[in-house]
Protein backbone atom coordinates (compact mmCIF):
# COMPACT_ATOMS: atom_id res chain seq x y z
CA UNK A 1 0.00 0.00 0.00
CA UNK A 2 1.28 3.47 -0.89
CA UNK A 3 2.16 5.74 2.01
CA UNK A 4 2.23 9.53 1.87
CA UNK A 5 4.75 11.48 3.93
CA UNK A 6 5.57 15.04 4.94
CA UNK A 7 8.37 16.48 7.06
CA UNK A 8 9.18 19.75 8.78
CA UNK A 9 11.96 21.00 11.05
CA UNK A 10 10.75 23.83 13.29
CA UNK A 11 13.13 26.01 15.31
CA UNK A 12 12.03 26.21 18.95
CA UNK A 13 14.06 27.56 21.88
CA UNK A 14 12.88 24.68 24.09
CA UNK A 15 11.21 21.99 21.97
CA UNK A 16 10.52 19.69 24.92
CA UNK A 17 8.48 22.42 26.65
CA UNK A 18 6.24 22.60 23.57
CA UNK A 19 6.06 18.96 22.48
CA UNK A 20 5.18 17.48 25.89
CA UNK A 21 1.93 19.44 26.47
CA UNK A 22 1.08 19.40 22.75
CA UNK A 23 1.19 15.60 22.52
CA UNK A 24 -0.66 15.22 25.81
CA UNK A 25 -3.37 17.52 24.49
CA UNK A 26 -3.72 15.48 21.29
CA UNK A 27 -4.51 12.37 23.34
CA UNK A 28 -7.61 14.19 24.60
CA UNK A 29 -8.84 14.18 21.00
CA UNK A 30 -8.64 10.43 20.58
CA UNK A 31 -4.98 10.03 19.56
CA UNK A 32 -2.71 7.38 21.08
CA UNK A 33 0.71 8.39 22.42
CA UNK A 34 3.81 6.20 22.61
CA UNK A 35 7.53 6.85 23.13
CA UNK A 36 10.68 5.70 21.35
CA UNK A 37 13.56 7.21 23.26
CA UNK A 38 13.17 10.98 23.13
CA UNK A 39 10.67 10.78 20.25
CA UNK A 40 6.92 10.96 20.76
CA UNK A 41 4.68 9.11 18.31
CA UNK A 42 1.04 10.18 18.02
CA UNK A 43 -1.22 7.72 16.18
CA UNK A 44 -4.49 8.90 14.71
CA UNK A 45 -7.13 6.85 12.94
CA UNK A 46 -5.66 7.58 9.50
CA UNK A 47 -2.03 8.41 10.15
CA UNK A 48 0.71 9.10 12.61
CA UNK A 49 3.03 11.93 13.61
CA UNK A 50 6.53 11.54 15.06
CA UNK A 51 7.93 14.44 17.10
CA UNK A 52 11.68 14.36 17.74
CA UNK A 53 13.47 17.07 19.74
CA UNK A 54 16.69 18.00 17.98
CA UNK A 55 18.73 20.63 19.79
CA UNK A 56 16.79 23.88 19.56
CA UNK A 57 14.35 22.48 17.02
CA UNK A 58 11.60 19.90 16.62
CA UNK A 59 11.78 17.41 13.75
CA UNK A 60 8.28 16.33 12.71
CA UNK A 61 7.52 13.42 10.38
CA UNK A 62 3.99 12.62 9.23
CA UNK A 63 2.71 9.50 7.47
CA UNK A 64 -0.77 8.61 6.18
CA UNK A 65 -2.42 6.13 3.84
CA UNK A 66 -3.77 8.73 1.40
CA UNK A 67 -2.93 12.28 0.48
CA UNK A 68 -6.18 13.71 1.86
CA UNK A 69 -5.54 12.13 5.26
CA UNK A 70 -1.99 13.53 5.13
CA UNK A 71 -3.37 17.00 4.37
CA UNK A 72 -5.60 16.94 7.45
CA UNK A 73 -2.86 15.43 9.62
CA UNK A 74 -0.53 18.23 8.54
CA UNK A 75 -3.23 20.81 9.27
CA UNK A 76 -3.96 19.31 12.68
CA UNK A 77 -0.31 19.23 13.73
CA UNK A 78 0.37 22.76 12.46
CA UNK A 79 -2.68 24.22 14.19
CA UNK A 80 -1.80 22.66 17.54
CA UNK A 81 1.88 23.55 17.21
CA UNK A 82 0.98 27.20 16.65
CA UNK A 83 -1.40 27.01 19.62
CA UNK A 84 1.47 26.02 21.92
CA UNK A 85 4.18 28.04 20.16
CA UNK A 86 2.65 30.99 18.25
CA UNK A 87 6.03 31.98 16.85
CA UNK A 88 6.08 28.69 14.91
CA UNK A 89 3.46 29.91 12.41
CA UNK A 90 6.12 31.53 10.22
CA UNK A 91 8.68 28.76 10.81
CA UNK A 92 6.78 25.65 9.71
CA UNK A 93 7.56 24.62 6.13
CA UNK A 94 6.22 21.23 5.10
CA UNK A 95 8.10 19.22 2.50
CA UNK A 96 7.13 16.01 0.80
CA UNK A 97 3.64 15.01 -0.29
CA UNK A 98 0.50 17.13 -0.06
CA UNK A 99 1.80 20.49 -1.27
CA UNK A 100 -0.42 20.69 -4.37
CA UNK A 101 -3.66 21.86 -2.78
CA UNK A 102 -4.53 25.49 -3.50
CA UNK A 103 -7.78 25.63 -1.51
CA UNK A 104 -8.03 24.11 1.98
CA UNK A 105 -9.80 20.74 1.81
CA UNK A 106 -11.79 21.64 4.92
CA UNK A 107 -13.04 24.91 3.42
CA UNK A 108 -16.47 25.17 1.78
CA UNK A 109 -18.55 28.03 0.37
CA UNK A 110 -22.23 27.77 1.31
CA UNK A 111 -25.25 29.97 0.60
CA UNK A 112 -27.99 31.12 2.94
CA UNK A 113 -31.33 29.53 1.98
CA UNK A 114 -33.67 30.70 4.75
CA UNK A 115 -33.83 31.88 8.36
CA UNK A 116 -36.26 31.08 11.18
CA UNK A 117 -36.75 32.18 14.80
CA UNK A 118 -37.00 29.05 16.98
CA UNK A 119 -36.82 30.82 20.37
CA UNK A 120 -36.59 34.45 21.52
CA UNK A 121 -32.77 34.24 21.56
CA UNK A 122 -32.18 31.46 19.00
CA UNK A 123 -32.19 31.88 15.23
CA UNK A 124 -31.82 28.99 12.78
CA UNK A 125 -30.16 29.56 9.42
CA UNK A 126 -30.34 26.97 6.67
CA UNK A 127 -27.42 26.82 4.25
CA UNK A 128 -27.00 24.99 0.95
CA UNK A 129 -23.82 23.69 -0.61
CA UNK A 130 -21.96 20.71 -2.00
CA UNK A 131 -19.98 18.02 -0.18
CA UNK A 132 -21.98 18.31 3.04
CA UNK A 133 -21.45 14.60 3.73
CA UNK A 134 -18.21 15.62 5.47
CA UNK A 135 -20.34 17.02 8.29
CA UNK A 136 -22.48 13.90 8.79
CA UNK A 137 -20.34 11.88 11.27
CA UNK A 138 -21.25 12.37 14.92
CA UNK A 139 -17.60 12.29 15.98
CA UNK A 140 -17.02 15.93 14.97
CA UNK A 141 -19.99 18.25 15.38
CA UNK A 142 -18.53 21.70 14.84
CA UNK A 143 -17.34 24.03 12.13
CA UNK A 144 -15.89 27.52 11.93
CA UNK A 145 -17.99 30.16 10.24
CA UNK A 146 -15.90 32.74 8.36
CA UNK A 147 -17.53 36.11 9.03
CA UNK A 148 -16.29 38.71 6.55
CA UNK A 149 -15.15 42.06 7.87
CA UNK A 150 -17.28 45.06 6.88
CA UNK A 151 -14.28 46.71 5.17
CA UNK A 152 -14.19 43.91 2.56
CA UNK A 153 -15.99 44.81 -0.65
CA UNK A 154 -15.78 41.18 -1.80
CA UNK A 155 -15.59 38.02 0.35
CA UNK A 156 -12.03 36.94 1.09
CA UNK A 157 -11.48 33.19 0.72
CA UNK A 158 -8.41 31.29 1.97
CA UNK A 159 -5.59 29.49 0.19
CA UNK A 160 -3.11 26.99 1.66
CA UNK A 161 0.19 28.26 3.06
CA UNK A 162 3.50 26.41 3.15
CA UNK A 163 2.88 25.82 6.85
CA UNK A 164 -0.28 23.85 6.02
CA UNK A 165 -2.58 26.50 7.48
CA UNK A 166 -4.97 28.87 5.78
CA UNK A 167 -3.39 31.99 4.36
CA UNK A 168 -4.94 35.23 3.12
CA UNK A 169 -4.25 37.68 0.30
CA UNK A 170 -5.00 40.50 2.79
CA UNK A 171 -4.14 39.17 6.27
CA UNK A 172 -5.26 42.40 7.91
CA UNK A 173 -8.78 41.72 6.60
CA UNK A 174 -8.81 38.05 7.55
CA UNK A 175 -12.41 37.03 8.35
CA UNK A 176 -13.46 36.42 11.92
CA UNK A 177 -13.67 32.71 12.76
CA UNK A 178 -16.63 31.76 14.94
CA UNK A 179 -17.29 28.16 16.03
CA UNK A 180 -20.78 26.70 15.68
CA UNK A 181 -22.47 23.31 15.84
CA UNK A 182 -23.94 21.62 12.79
CA UNK A 183 -27.46 21.29 14.15
CA UNK A 184 -28.93 19.19 11.33
CA UNK A 185 -28.17 17.93 7.83
CA UNK A 186 -30.41 16.99 4.93
CA UNK A 187 -28.00 15.33 2.53
CA UNK A 188 -30.73 14.63 -0.03
CA UNK A 189 -31.71 18.31 -0.16
CA UNK A 190 -28.09 19.46 0.20
CA UNK A 191 -28.81 21.68 3.20
CA UNK A 192 -27.38 22.29 6.67
CA UNK A 193 -28.96 23.97 9.71
CA UNK A 194 -26.97 26.02 12.23
CA UNK A 195 -28.60 27.55 15.31
CA UNK A 196 -27.28 30.92 16.51
CA UNK A 197 -27.69 32.34 20.00
CA UNK A 198 -28.62 35.99 19.54
CA UNK A 199 -26.92 38.31 22.02
CA UNK A 200 -27.82 41.89 22.87
CA UNK A 201 -24.15 42.88 22.60
CA UNK A 202 -23.85 41.20 19.21
CA UNK A 203 -20.40 39.95 18.23
CA UNK A 204 -19.48 39.08 14.63
CA UNK A 205 -21.29 35.72 14.67
CA UNK A 206 -24.49 37.00 16.22
CA UNK A 207 -24.38 40.07 13.96
CA UNK A 208 -24.03 37.82 10.91
CA UNK A 209 -27.03 35.77 12.01
CA UNK A 210 -29.19 38.86 12.50
CA UNK A 211 -28.35 40.25 9.04
CA UNK A 212 -28.22 37.00 7.01
CA UNK A 213 -30.61 36.79 4.08
CA UNK A 214 -31.21 34.23 1.32
CA UNK A 215 -28.49 34.28 -1.32
CA UNK A 216 -25.68 35.45 0.98
CA UNK A 217 -22.47 33.42 0.50
CA UNK A 218 -20.54 32.27 3.57
CA UNK A 219 -17.35 30.32 4.01
CA UNK A 220 -17.07 27.52 6.56
CA UNK A 221 -14.10 25.45 7.70
CA UNK A 222 -14.55 22.02 9.21
CA UNK A 223 -15.73 19.73 10.54
CA UNK A 224 -13.86 19.61 13.82
CA UNK A 225 -14.33 19.39 17.54
CA UNK A 226 -15.34 16.50 19.75
CA UNK A 227 -18.65 14.77 19.43
CA UNK A 228 -20.56 11.68 20.50
CA UNK A 229 -18.85 8.55 21.83
CA UNK A 230 -20.40 5.14 22.31
CA UNK A 231 -21.66 4.28 25.81
CA UNK A 232 -24.64 2.79 27.63
CA UNK A 233 -25.33 5.74 29.94
CA UNK A 234 -24.91 9.42 29.04
CA UNK A 235 -24.71 12.73 30.84
CA UNK A 236 -25.18 15.87 28.74
CA UNK A 237 -24.88 19.32 30.30
CA UNK A 238 -24.83 22.76 28.72
CA UNK A 239 -26.26 26.24 28.40
CA UNK A 240 -27.85 27.82 25.31
CA UNK A 241 -24.59 27.68 23.37
CA UNK A 242 -24.46 23.90 23.78
CA UNK A 243 -28.15 23.30 23.09
CA UNK A 244 -27.67 22.66 19.33
CA UNK A 245 -24.98 20.04 20.02
CA UNK A 246 -26.95 18.33 22.77
CA UNK A 247 -30.09 18.34 20.59
CA UNK A 248 -28.28 16.70 17.69
CA UNK A 249 -26.62 14.07 19.88
CA UNK A 250 -29.92 13.18 21.53
CA UNK A 251 -31.46 12.61 18.11
CA UNK A 252 -28.73 10.14 17.18
CA UNK A 253 -28.71 8.02 20.34
CA UNK A 254 -29.91 4.42 20.10
CA UNK A 255 -33.09 3.34 21.89
CA UNK A 256 -30.99 1.45 24.44
CA UNK A 257 -29.19 4.59 25.67
CA UNK A 258 -30.02 5.89 29.16
CA UNK A 259 -28.93 8.96 31.12
CA UNK A 260 -29.60 12.63 31.86
CA UNK A 261 -29.49 15.85 29.86
CA UNK A 262 -29.23 19.09 31.85
CA UNK A 263 -29.83 22.27 29.85
CA UNK A 264 -29.61 25.77 31.32
CA UNK A 265 -31.64 28.56 29.69
CA UNK A 266 -33.00 31.90 30.84
CA UNK A 267 -36.70 31.06 31.14
CA UNK A 268 -39.57 28.92 29.82
CA UNK A 269 -39.67 30.80 26.52
CA UNK A 270 -36.25 29.39 25.58
CA UNK A 271 -37.27 25.75 26.10
CA UNK A 272 -37.30 23.79 22.84
CA UNK A 273 -39.03 20.56 21.94
CA UNK A 274 -36.24 17.98 21.66
CA UNK A 275 -36.50 14.64 19.85
CA UNK A 276 -34.83 11.43 20.98
CA UNK A 277 -35.59 7.75 20.65
CA UNK A 278 -33.49 7.03 23.73
CA UNK A 279 -34.34 6.83 27.43
CA UNK A 280 -32.27 9.91 28.30
CA UNK A 281 -34.24 12.22 30.60
CA UNK A 282 -34.11 15.94 29.76
CA UNK A 283 -34.18 18.53 32.55
CA UNK A 284 -34.36 22.28 31.90
CA UNK A 285 -32.60 24.58 34.37
CA UNK A 286 -34.00 28.13 34.45
CA UNK A 287 -31.69 30.89 35.72
CA UNK A 288 -34.36 33.61 35.56
CA UNK A 289 -33.10 37.18 35.82
CA UNK A 290 -29.49 36.16 36.48
CA UNK A 291 -27.05 36.90 33.68
CA UNK A 292 -25.69 33.94 31.76
CA UNK A 293 -22.42 32.74 33.23
CA UNK A 294 -23.01 34.23 36.69
CA UNK A 295 -24.58 31.23 38.48
CA UNK A 296 -23.45 27.75 39.54
CA UNK A 297 -26.78 26.29 38.42
CA UNK A 298 -25.36 23.92 35.80
CA UNK A 299 -22.36 22.71 37.82
CA UNK A 300 -24.56 22.12 40.88
CA UNK A 301 -26.99 20.06 38.81
CA UNK A 302 -24.16 17.93 37.44
CA UNK A 303 -22.88 17.25 40.96
CA UNK A 304 -26.36 16.09 42.00
CA UNK A 305 -26.69 13.48 39.24
CA UNK A 306 -26.65 9.82 40.27
CA UNK A 307 -24.21 7.93 38.05
CA UNK A 308 -24.58 4.19 37.46
CA UNK A 309 -22.46 2.03 39.76
CA UNK A 310 -23.04 -1.38 38.17
CA UNK A 311 -20.24 -1.26 35.59
CA UNK A 312 -22.38 0.40 32.92
CA UNK A 313 -20.23 2.32 30.43
CA UNK A 314 -20.52 6.10 30.84
CA UNK A 315 -19.90 9.08 28.60
CA UNK A 316 -20.30 12.64 29.90
CA UNK A 317 -20.39 15.65 27.57
CA UNK A 318 -20.64 19.29 28.63
CA UNK A 319 -20.39 22.65 26.86
CA UNK A 320 -20.75 25.90 28.76
CA UNK A 321 -19.16 29.10 30.10
CA UNK A 322 -15.52 28.89 31.23
CA UNK A 323 -16.11 28.90 34.99
CA UNK A 324 -18.75 26.18 34.74
CA UNK A 325 -16.46 24.25 32.38
CA UNK A 326 -13.67 24.21 34.98
CA UNK A 327 -16.00 23.16 37.80
CA UNK A 328 -17.69 20.39 35.79
CA UNK A 329 -14.47 19.01 34.35
CA UNK A 330 -12.82 18.88 37.78
CA UNK A 331 -15.86 17.16 39.25
CA UNK A 332 -16.02 14.52 36.51
CA UNK A 333 -12.30 13.77 36.72
CA UNK A 334 -11.64 14.00 40.44
CA UNK A 335 -14.96 13.14 42.11
CA UNK A 336 -16.40 10.75 39.51
CA UNK A 337 -13.06 9.35 38.37
CA UNK A 338 -13.90 9.45 34.66
CA UNK A 339 -11.03 8.78 32.27
CA UNK A 340 -10.24 10.89 29.22
CA UNK A 341 -12.15 8.52 26.97
CA UNK A 342 -15.24 8.78 29.19
CA UNK A 343 -15.88 12.52 29.10
CA UNK A 344 -15.53 15.65 27.02
CA UNK A 345 -16.03 19.06 28.61
CA UNK A 346 -15.51 22.22 26.55
CA UNK A 347 -15.69 25.95 27.27
CA UNK A 348 -17.86 27.47 24.54
CA UNK A 349 -17.42 31.01 25.85
CA UNK A 350 -16.02 33.10 28.69
CA UNK A 351 -18.01 35.84 30.39
CA UNK A 352 -16.68 39.30 29.60
CA UNK A 353 -14.44 38.17 26.73
CA UNK A 354 -14.88 37.81 23.00
CA UNK A 355 -13.99 34.55 21.28
CA UNK A 356 -10.81 36.15 19.94
CA UNK A 357 -9.78 37.17 23.46
CA UNK A 358 -10.51 33.67 24.78
CA UNK A 359 -8.27 32.13 22.12
CA UNK A 360 -5.41 34.38 23.22
CA UNK A 361 -5.68 33.38 26.90
Q: Which descriptors apply to this entry?
A:
361 residues; alpha+beta; 7-stranded antiparallel β-sheet; 6-stranded antiparallel β-sheet; 7 helices; 20 strands; 21% helix
Q: Which secondary structure elements does this structure contain, and how are they paired or packed?
A:
Layout: E1 4-11, H1 15-27, E2 32-36, E3 39-44, E4 47-53, E5 57-64, H2 67-84, E6 95-96, E7 107-119, E8 122-128, E9 142-147, E10 159-160, E11 166-167, E12 176-181, E13 184-186, E14 191-197, H3 204-211, E15 217-224, E16 233-238, H4 243-252, E17 258-265, E18 279-286, H5 297-304, E19 314-321, H6 322-335, E20 343-349, H7 355-360
Parallel strand pairs: 16-17, 16-19, 17-18, 19-20
Antiparallel strand pairs: 1-5, 1-6, 2-3, 3-4, 4-5, 7-8, 7-15, 8-14, 9-12, 9-15, 10-11, 13-14
Could you give a short description of this structure?
By secondary structure, this protein is α+β, with helices and mostly antiparallel strands.
Low-confidence stretches: none
Helicity, as a percent range: 10-25%
Described by strand count, sense and barrel closure, the largest sheet is: 7 strands, antiparallel
SS-derived structural category: alpha+beta
Number of helices: 7
What pattern of helices and strands is seen along the backbone? EHEEEEHEEEEEEEEEHEEHEEHEHEH
Instruction: Report the sheet-strand fraction.
Output: 35-45%
Quick one: how many beta strands? Answer: 20
Shape: globular
Biggest sheet strand order reads 12-9-15-7-8-14-13
Please state the average pLDDT score. 93
The radius of gyration computed from the alpha-carbon positions, rounded to a whole number of angstroms, is 21 Å
Amino acid sequence: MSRYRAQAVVALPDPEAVLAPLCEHLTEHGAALSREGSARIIRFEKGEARFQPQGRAACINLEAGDVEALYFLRLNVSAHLVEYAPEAASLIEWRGDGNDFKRPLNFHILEVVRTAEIAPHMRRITFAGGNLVRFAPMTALHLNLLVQRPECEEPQWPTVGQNGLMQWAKPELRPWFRKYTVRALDLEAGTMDIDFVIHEDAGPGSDFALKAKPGDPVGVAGPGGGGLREAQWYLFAGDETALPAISRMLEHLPASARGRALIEVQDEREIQSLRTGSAVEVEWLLRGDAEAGTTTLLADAVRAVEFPTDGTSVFAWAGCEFDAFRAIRMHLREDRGLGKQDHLVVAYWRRGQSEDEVRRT
